[in-house]
Amino acid sequence: MASAEPLTALSRWYLYAIHGYFCEVMFTAAWEFVVNFNWKFPGVTSVWALFIYGTSILIVEKMYLRLRGRCHILVRCLIYTLWTYLWEFTTGYILRQFNACPWDYSQFDFDFMGLITLEYAVPWFCGALIMEQFIIRNTLRLRFEQHAEPSGPMASLALANGHVKTD
């Protein structure tokens, strides 16, 4: 029996991208509810968020692997938050050159060029904590078994009307 291999960087990037995309939609829906009391919870994002979040979290994963034994989690989350601001500003600045930047923080009190805002420091910090403790750590634990056969341990389960049947 072949041993299970860790997920490839591309597979992890994909999971991180989907996670970030989902969080962006949920955050904007919650923000719309809190600010405008909109019970429809319209969450929005851009397709650029897939690249932005996937790449950023993959880079934070590398930071986590290097820093986890060297500094306290709160210091790491502060570093991740600073990275997030740098990444958000950089990607926003590049996208703005093509009139493609999907966010504009100009209406916030502590914004810089409309691309980043200090009002999001606490949410970014909390997101960094969740990202490290749950998303990155669990994604790094995932394994891919290349030669898995359907007749393995799940063979005793039968599908009934699209549902797993357990006897």
Key descriptive features of the protein:
single chain; about 170 residues; mainly alpha; two-stranded antiparallel sheet; 4 helices; 6 strands; about 55% helix; about 10% strand; globular; transmembrane helix; transmembrane; CmpB_TMEM229
Question: How would you summarize this macromolecular structure in one to three sentences?
Answer:
Belongs to the TMEM229 family. The protein is mainly alpha-helical and 167 residues long.
Description:
The protein is 56% helix and 8% strand. It has 167 residues and is mainly alpha-helical. It has a domain at 4-85 and 121-142. Strands 1-4 form a two-stranded antiparallel ribbon. The chain has a two-stranded antiparallel sheet with strand order 2-3. Helix 1 (9-36) runs antiparallel to helix 4. The model has no long low-confidence stretch (mean pLDDT 90).
Per-chain topology:
Blueprint: E1 5-6, H1 9-36, H2 48-67, H3 73-96, E2 111-112, E3 116-117, H4 121-141, E4 143-144, E5 158-160, E6 163-165
Antiparallel strand pairs: 1-4, 2-3, 5-6
Helix pairs in contact: 1-2, 1-4, 2-3, 3-4
Taking all residues together, what is the mean pLDDT? Answer: 90
Structural class assignment: mainly alpha
Roughly what fraction of the amino acids lie in strands?
5-15%
- Biggest sheet record: 2 strands, antiparallel
Low-pLDDT stretches are none
H/E element sequence = EHHHEEHEEE
Overall morphology: globular
The radius of gyration over CA amounts to 20 Å
Number of helices: 4
Strand order of the largest sheet: 1-4
Describe the oligomeric state of these chains in a short phrase. Answer: single chain
Query: Ends: how far apart?
Result: 28 Å
The number of E-state strands comes to 6
Helical residue percent band? 55-70%
